[in-house]
Amino acid sequence: xxxxxxxxxxxxxxxxxxxxxxxxxxxxxxxxxxxxxxxxxxxxxxxxxxxxxxxxxxxxxxxxxxxxxxxxxxxxxxxxxxxxxxxxxxxxxxxxxxxxxxxxxxxxxxxxxxxxxxxxxxxxxxxxxxxxxxxxxxxxxxxxxxxxxxxxxxxxxxxxxxxxxxxxxxxxxxxxxxxxxxxxxxxxxxxxxxxxxxxxxxxxxxxxxxxxxxxxxxxxxxxxxxxxxxxxxxxxxxxxxxxxxxxxx
Length: 249
What we know:
The chain is an alpha+beta fold. It is about 35% helix and about 25% strand. The longest helix is centred in the N-terminal third of the chain and has 48 residues, at about 1-50.
C-alpha cells in the first residue's frame, strides 16, 4: 500500500513539474505581450496628459516595439493590438498587428472591418475579447486556423490593456508547429499517458494514442474523476490543464 501511495505521489509531483514547464513556455510568450501592453498604456497616458485625443496615428509609434518582439522571439508568428470599440471616435475596430508571411517577411495584418460586409471580422463580439474586457484577465485561445485565410494552425496569448479605461487587447500568435516543438518533449518525458487540454475541453497535445488531438472531452479533467491519475493546472490564467490518464473514458 505504501509503495502504491509513493508511486501515486511521485506521479503527481512529475505532473506538477511538467505543468510548470509548460507554463514557462506560455509565460515567455506573455513577456512579449506584456511589453507591448505596457508601452500602449504608457503612450495612452502620455497623450491624455497632454490633453490630446488618442488616435490610430498614435499607435504607429508602437510599431517598433511590436517589430522588436517579433525579431527577439522568432517563434512568434504575429504580435499586435486590437483596440476597444469606443477608443477611437470614428473607428470602432482598429488593429496594429504585424506577422510573418509565407516568405518569413514581416508584414501588417489586414482584416475586413467593413460593418456592411457579411465577412466582417468583428472581434468586438468574440468571447476572448469580451472576456478580456469583462474579467480583465489573460487568455490563451486556440489552437485554431488563423483568420488570415492562410490556414495556419495557431494558438494566441492575449492580455487586456487598461489605463483608467479598457484600451483593447494585446496578443501574440504562435504557430502550433513551434508550440509543439516546445511542449511535446515535456510530455514525452513523463511515464504516464497525459494530455494537455484547453479551456474548451479540447485535447491540444498528448503523448498517447488513447486520446486524439483536437477531440473534445465530455467534461473538464478533474482529480476527483476516476478516469484520471492526476490533473495539474497550467498556472497562467489559461484554464488549461495537464491530465494523466487512468482509464479510457
